[in-house]
Amino acid sequence: MSDIRVGLIGFGNIGAGVVKLLRDNSTVIRDKVGATIQLARIADLDITSDRGVAVDPAMLTTDVNAILNDPEIKIVIELIGGYEPARTFVLKAIAAGKHVVTANKALLALHGTEIYAAAAAHGVEVQYEAAVGGGIPVLSAIKGNLAANRFGSVFGIMNGTCNYILTRMTQEGADFSDVLQSAKELGYAEPDPTFDIEGTDTAHKLAVLASLCFGASIDFNAIYTEGITGISGIDIRFAEQFGYRIKLLAIGKRTDDGQLEVRVHPTMIPLHNPMSDVGGVFNAIRLTGDFVGPVMFYGRGAGQNPTASAIVGDLIEISRSITAGVDRRRAAPLGFLDSAITPLQLKPMEEIITKFMLRFSALDQPGVLAGIAGTLGEKGISIESMMQTARHNGGEAVPIVIMTHEAREGAIRAALTEIDTRDFICEKSRFIRIEDNLE
Predict the structure, then answer these.
(1) pLDDT value at residue 331
(2) Is 372 helix (H, G, I), strand (E, B) or coil?
(3) Which of 22, 203, 347, 406 is least crowded, fewest Cβ atoms below 10 Å from its Cβ?
């Protein structure tokens, strides 16, 4: 069998990891594929900086067309990230009859439907294991060994930056801004961490993951997304007193009325749940299938080596198809037949039903609790428990924290809007959603 020639677009940190892995483990890869995966060309705007891995200068080019127009290159790896020009490059590669491997969750979240349709039309594969969970093999498991299951839910901690920040805030009582700066210095956060801390990165991954689990075309812009910038130390302390830990959680659920809940936001998880112990930069994804039951995947969700491992794993799968003479892999990009993928309506956040922790900053005076409880009751919200800090001499603001029974989010928002107009409320009231049953 002749060599399988590969082109790499994007020679950053992850690209360097791919080069290193293909070089260091070439023998074991050849023994598993039956052919040598040969990296033929690397395209990047910067071909002079040292990446820490030796590369023949003749392989390097600033012209991506040297890869896209080369008929000998059978597989293209896209690692430049973002929407454009990544979308254009991927579609050109597909149109040229080349298979594609990508780690670009943003691209797939917004343009996946277009890309998968193009791949089907041209009889090529699009593989993207590294797009969700780095080196955690969750996507291949969903499309492979777990494919017989109907999935009811998927929950995940999918952003190492946010998990690192919340872990240190919880364990050390550290301030958000201080931990964010530390994350930047350690390389856990980008110089501009907006996509991470505002939840966008997690939402990109959830769009891909939910599409796979539910066989649905997910509109990324319809996913409710809320980051961690509003979480304070007092929220974390009260959550722990009630027996919970706060995580940035990606949530996908089937509902009884045939809709999907697909949302990203800070969530209180019971301390007895294993996901609450996922700390630092680690990720965890929990699926529930109707036959397999709950399954949890855990590992490093990012980083050069774990991500390179997933990318080269996709290369191996495509190369096996090539060596076997298969035009297109047995599993379609989303695991379902293309004709079975349907758009499903996402349940509006106002209709979501869950428990909530409500936090008020109120003057320490008679009648306050009665005023808050009365408004909650008028909106159909029942109180499970309450906590208030020690009373002051009077006239000062004190935190009041209330745990509700299950309630509709629209009712919670309406109640807090009304309560915040009261003279005894000193600052905007806050709420955090609770997931007691991660099933």
Answers:
(1) 60
(2) helix
(3) 406
Residue 43 to residue 33: CA distance in whole angstroms? 25
**Is 355 designated active site?**
no
The backbone torsions φ and ψ at residue 137, rounded to the nearest 5 degrees and listed phi first, read -85, 55
For the chain, which domains are there?
Answer: 4-135+304-343 (3.40.50.720), 145-299 (3.30.360.10), 349-434 (3.30.70.260)
Q: Which residues contact 239 (CB under 8 A, 6 or more apart)?
A: 245, 246, 268, 357, 432
Q: Which residues contact 322 (CB under 8 A, 6 or more apart)?
A: 4, 35, 74, 99
> Which of 98, 105, 143, 205 does the annotation list as catalytic?
205
- pTM beyond cutoff 0.85: yes
316: three-class secondary structure by DSSP: helix
Q: What is the sign of the dihedral through the CA atoms of 353, 357, 363 and 369?
A: positive
Q: pLDDT tens digits for 85-124?
A: 999 999 999 999 999 999 999 999 999 989 999 998 998 9
- Residue 35, φ and ψ in degrees, nearest 5: -155, 160
Q: Dihedrals φ, ψ of 204, to 5°? A: -55, -45
pLDDT at 324 over 90: no
Spatial separation of the C-alpha atoms in residues 238 and 401, rounded to whole Å? 8
Nearest to 5 by CA among 42, 45, 52: 42
